[in-house]
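INFO  loader      accepted 1 record
INFO  loader      residues=79
INFO  predictor   begin
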Amino acid sequence: MEFVFQGAGLIPHARHAKIEMASVSWNYTTFLNIIFLIVAAALVGRYFHRGGGWKMLRMMNKPMEDHGAHTGHEAHGYA
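INFO  predictor   done
INFO  writer      dumping tokens
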């Protein structure tokens, strides 16, 4: 590919790039990140406070137990 671009004259010979020193700055995205981090922490705290916890997370990785061939329709009269 390099030779194709060279043959077509698509590779620039001079570079005019400005390199600025990177620095930490406080702008609107910084404040939005902080707000969403607080919201996420509140939601995780609410999950654990309302009875979620590690037991529920472990249970989510296990398949559900099979209680026979019950489809759910017979119990509600939809058979």
